[in-house]
């Protein structure tokens, strides 16, 4: 008889060696990931692949046109010792929306949940123990993988689920408000584009402006609606949520923007449900103008998403160009004529790149709004939210959020 592969001993030893208190948001190589292939019209039965560098060469060709989308969710070890995944069915439906937006075959909710459970089950020893703030982050993604050079959908696709134990994203958590910035001259999404989906192409263009924002002392970027620049859309990787001051009965209103170019956050949706069902507050999902935010309508504002849950926003600065009275408020669309600029300038696209040093130097003013509250409302919401994920909230089962119900 041949001995079984030794690979598992190494993974088990790696899991046993993790210091759960020190966990951040870095890559921790786990035992395995789940990989499914779509070919000739159907997804196959999938395999568990020992963790190692993914071999990019298989799918490189069709990555040129950006056929790639992803999800992010978490598994928790709960009070009863069982591991459950937070609302995988909601992420599964959102992945379908993303796949449809960029002509990729959908992954059924059943297959998505199966693949997630499979990857988590094979890596149970990488889920932080109950009592630690960490979790097992799950990153499912779909990419076009067949060789392809024409602009048509890839002939083959991969659906892969990788897992990675994580701790806190920002160490500060809810007690450290951060500054947000609305940068002039960059939209995250197009008015009728793909902002409502988690397709890969939405994210790379944000990397440069994010670096620029960090350089100026801002932790997060906030975006306005791309069409009118009057309404709040969302942050680069999380939704915008606000609470009004409590009324005489202690009740608040949870307000979050509604727009075609916002990614529907599972965290935002769950916090909304908790606000109404657990706290008896009111919730509104509607257009929220920058003017409304500036007018002091809200007591607390947070950025919310799976990675951080809620990040309190202490202040929002909006850059506005000082001279917007000229013929063209946006220098990017200034007309060029060979009569005045010569033929070379007619095709000089350098100024279309909005993030040059020139742009940094353009005269601008800042409109600011500060939130001086102690984030009491969102602290309550976040606590209840965490207690559902750990099984500490009375009646957590009734939400039906932690799956599978029997645990892994
Ligand atoms: C992933 C993401 C969110 C957060 O969604 P969750 O489901 O709560 O994790 C919000 N906005 C954008 C742009 C995102 O990519």
UniProtKB/TrEMBL annotation:
Keywords: Aminotransferase, Pyridoxal phosphate, Transferase. Coiled coil: none annotated. Its cofactor is pyridoxal 5'-phosphate. Belongs to the class-IV pyridoxal-phosphate-dependent aminotransferase family. It comes from the Eukaryota. Pfam families: Aminotran_4 (PF01063). Transmembrane segments: none annotated. InterPro entries: Aminotrans_IV, Aminotransferase-like, B_amino_transII, BCAT-like_C, BCAT-like_N, BCAT_family. This is Branched-chain-amino-acid aminotransferase.
């Amino acid at each position: 008889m041949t001995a079984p592969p030794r690979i598992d001993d190494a993974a088990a030893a790696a899991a046993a060696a993790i210091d759960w208190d020190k966990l951040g948001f870095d890559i921790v190589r786990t035992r395995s990931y789940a990989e499914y292939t779509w070919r000739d019209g159907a997804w196959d039965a999938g395999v568990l692949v020992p963790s190692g560098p993914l071999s990019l060469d298989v799918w490189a060709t069709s990555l040129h046109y950006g056929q790639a989308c992803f999800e992010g969710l978490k598994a928790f070890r709960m009070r009863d010792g069982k591991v459950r995944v937070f609302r995988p069915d909601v992420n599964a439906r959102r992945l379908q929306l993303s796949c449809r937006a960029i002509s990729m075959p959908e992954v059924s909710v059943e297959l998505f949940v199966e693949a997630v459970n499979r990857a988590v089950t094979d890596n149970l020893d990488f889920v932080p123990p109950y009592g630690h703030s960490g979790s097992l982050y799950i990153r499912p993604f779909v990419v076009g993988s067949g060789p392809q050079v024409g602009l048509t959908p890839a002939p083959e696709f991969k659906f892969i689920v990788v897992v990675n134990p994580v701790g806190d994203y920002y160490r500060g958590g809810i007690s450290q408000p951060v500054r947000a910035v609305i940068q002039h001259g960059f939209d995250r999404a197009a008015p009728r584009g793909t902002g409502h989906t988690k397709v890969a192409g939405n994210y790379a263009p944000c990397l440069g402006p994010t670096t620029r924002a960090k350089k100026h002392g801002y932790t997060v970027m906030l975006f306005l609606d791309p069409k009118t620049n009057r309404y709040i859309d969302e942050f680069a990787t999380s939704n915008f949520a606000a609470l009004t001051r409590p009324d005489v009965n202690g009740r608040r209103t949870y307000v979050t923007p509604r727009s075609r170019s916002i990614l529907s956050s599972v965290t935002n949706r769950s916090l909304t449900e908790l606000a109404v069902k657990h706290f008896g507050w009111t919730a509104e999902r509607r257009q929220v103008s920058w003017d409304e935010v500036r007018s002091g309508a809200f007591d607390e504002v947070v950025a919310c998403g799976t990675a951080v849950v809620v990040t309190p926003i202490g202040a929002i600065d909006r850059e506005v160009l000082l001279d917007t009275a000229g013929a063209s408020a946006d220098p990017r669309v200034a007309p060029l004529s060979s009569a005045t600029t010569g033929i070379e300038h007619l095709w000089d696209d350098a100024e279309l790149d909005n993030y040059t040093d020139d742009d940094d130097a353009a005269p601008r003013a800042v409109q600011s709004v500060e939130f001086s509250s102690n984030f009491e409302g969102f602290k309550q919401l976040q606590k209840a939210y965490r207690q559902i994920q750990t099984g500490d909230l009375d009646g957590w089962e009734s939400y039906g959020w932690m799956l599978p119900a029997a645990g892994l």
